[in-house]
Amino acid sequence: MEKKVITHQCSFCKRTIKVRDQYDMPIYDPSTGFAICKNCVREINHFLDEHEEAAQQEETKAFAGQLDDILAQNKPHIIKQYLDEYIINQDRAKKILSVAVYNHYKRMKYGYLNDDGTEIEKSNVIMLGPSGCGKTALLSHLSKLLDIPFAVTDASSLTEAGFVGADVEVAVRNLYYAADKDIEKAEHGIIYLDEFDKIARKSGANNSITADPGHEGVQQALLKMLEGSVVEFTSRGQRKHPEAPTIKVDTRNILFIVGGAFVGIDDVIAKRLSKTSSIGFGADVQGKDDKPKFDELIHKVRPEDLMQYGIIPEIIGRLPVICTLETLDEDALLRILTEPKNAPVKQYEKLLAMDHVQLEFEEDALRAVAKKAIERKTGARSLKGIIEDVMLDIMFDIPKSDEPRKVIITKDCIENGAKPTVEKLDK
Known about the structure:
By secondary structure, this protein is of the alpha/beta class. The chain is built from 16 helices and 14 strands. It has three domains: 1-60, no CATH class; 74-278 and 287-323, P-loop containing nucleotide triphosphate hydrolases (Rossmann fold); 330-424, Helicase, Ruva Protein, domain 3 (Orthogonal Bundle). The protein starts with 5 loop residues before the first strand and ends with a strand.
């Protein structure tokens, strides 16, 4: 007995369609008789793709039109002047970052306006400097000036696919959320991979024969992303599986900056620089005081030193700009306490002023704070914590009264935990 052929009329094209299976009439409502055939579904899908492509081109043109204004407002000297207001010292690093960012936007403008086959490569940056010298602070202020999405991701938390931990796509996902889920904005942002030295392969220049889920594999996984590729990731909280909806972000115009303390890199540089042998007759014996200091060595870093440290050559090739930062001495830490717009001392002055209290730090007290930070070997990041310890009791007691007062922090308060001097002021 022959199977009866069912026919339905498409509500869009009005053609009568022979329905052999569900794919001939993908959309059908039996209660109303509303139906759309597969040919109409294909055409609708085609029109939607065309519309999305046209809308994307319009957005790109709109951004390309803004690039002239962005470049005019963010010339290297303007960027450096702005960073000088917040960051003490590190003039060389400020110049390198200012030029890298300016060139990054020029590269984008060239790519949008020229179609001559010439491609200008990305100026991704690698930053090297001791802990607390201002790497993250430099970049967070830079992103505020440029008004672009900026996301920090801890590289040490990343693992290669298949291991427990965060995949490298997390860095792009963090930027997507920093851009308020605006893909267009995210595709022109800055990603900072902190603690990058923690993913150096343990064997240094030699290949590792054992599984290395948190190191060389992560570097390999980062390669395509640094170069510029479409990265696919699931929204936050969703597990990665074939049916999970994904978000796609093109990293071609995302500036990648990687940074870390690179503890021990100075020894690698010193080893390369030491040409004279210290063994045998007539050898130059180098005393402890003759050895070059960290600040002298760090500026002499070369790609081969990073390779020796454990960064794979392919990654180094995609990080053409090397930015080095010096250690902060006592004088620099002293200036950080008082000079920048958001200096710790200024912050506490404003907090106490809200309770009608004047705050004064003696010069010796500030120097004692700087010395304590140097002893802790944490650079500028511990300055606020040291002041917070001293200010705790004062900030607890001050609100008990509304009387105008003056609080003086002395050297004894910092070094021995003495109570700050409180003086009453005339109303």
